[in-house]
Specification:
The chain is an alpha/beta fold and 160 residues long. Helices cover 34% and strands 21% of the residues.
Length: 160
């Protein structure tokens, strides 16, 4: 049986990346996306989605922003605390000295996946709140993947 997977996107900079993650979440069956900090949202504070970052999200999400439940909560740590109370295992996707390869990670029943922003990754203060840190093993010369590609790889693995 597939786990329940929620996603946390703290301070993602690109609306296109956010849209791509919504699309992957829809395709692979993630249950919910939490947006925090400066991460662009599918609608503005008035519920409109016709311009600016909202238009960029819609362009790459191709409707995923309408089919995947989402919520904005300003502080990522508040989302993490709430998820822990609901029985979710908190997993950051990040390269760290204590990270476990994605291929070795045993999936629990309920997972909150945290993907870091395009420049700094997952902040250290958030990593301290995680139950596990996993990474995608890199075979080539590049050290990392685009955040939306990373999300697609992890969601596929968790929900296949």
């Amino acid at each position: 049986m597939n786990p329940i997977v929620h996603i946390l996107l703290p301070d993602i900079r690109s609306a296109y990346n956010v849209g791509s993650i919504f699309r992957s979440a829809d395709c692979f069956g993630a249950s919910k996306i939490f947006l925090s900090g400066t991460t662009p949202r599918p609608t503005d504070r008035f519920g409109r989605s016709s311009s600016g970052p909202q238009k960029e999200i819609a362009k790459t999400a191709l409707g995923g922003e309408k089919t995947v439940a989402w919520e904005y909560i300003e502080k990522a740590k508040d989302i993490i605390k709430k998820a822990k109370k609901e029985g979710f295992v908190i997993v950051a996707i990040e390269q760290a000295s204590n990270s476990v390869p994605l291929t070795s990670f045993t999936k629990p029943e309920k997972i909150l996946c945290i993907f870091g922003n395009e420049v700094d990754g997952v902040p250290k203060e958030i990593l301290k709140l995680c139950d596990s840190i996993i990474e995608i093993e890199m075979k080539g010369d590049k050290e990392s993947l685009n955040v939306s590609v990373c999300a697609g790889v992890v969601l596929y693995d968790f929900l296949k």
